[in-house]
Design goal:
Elements (H helix, E strand, L loop, with lengths): L7 E6 L2 H12 L2 E2 L8 H8 L7 E5 L7 E6 L12 E3 L7 H17 L3 E6 L8 E5 L5 E4 L1
Parallel strand pairs: 1-4, 5-8
Antiparallel strand pairs: 2-3, 3-4, 6-7, 7-8
């Protein structure tokens, strides 16, 4: 029996297009419309004119990372995420160099609308990381 090597991460959200565009900027991904459509706007127009966009997906242009799908749901976020993304901004870095890199990425993402929840500095056991929230309040880490 073979194991699955590829997977998609799906976000339930209030504004799929807006949240997807935020995450495209975070991850360096590009919009990935359904097959047969040049853009998500074209797909949305074909679905039902005037209907709120239901989905938006983005993919790694290098083809290495997982596809991320954003889907409209009627209910809002009410509790802390049980699963979150860790954005590997400081991969391979340690100490002050790692913390400076993470803080620079934090500053870039807060300019896009993210919120810094807390900075967790290295403690001798664990390296530094920064807990963030995206524009809809979903938690993620810069590590």
């Amino acid at each position: 029996m073979s194991s699955v090597k590829k997977f998609q991460v799906t976000f339930d959200c209030a504004e799929p297009t807006r949240l997807a565009r935020f995450w495209c900027e975070v991850l360096g991904y590009t919009a990935s419309p359904p097959e047969g459509f040049a853009t998500w706007d074209e797909f949305d127009r074909s679905d039902a004119p005037g209907k709120e966009p239901q989905y938006f997906a983005c993919t790694d242009p290098e083809g290495e990372g997982s596809r991320v799908l954003f889907q409209l749901v009627p209910e809002g976020k009410v509790v802390k995420n049980r699963v979150h993304l860790c954005v590997r901004a400081g991969l391979g870095l340690v100490g002050e160099e790692r913390l400076a890199t993470l803080k620079a990425e934090r500053d870039r993402l807060t300019a896009l609308g993210a919120v810094c929840v807390r900075v967790m500095e290295a403690d001798g056991e664990n390296e530094s990381c920064i807990v963030m929230q995206d524009i809809e309040g979903n938690e993620f880490c810069l590590d």
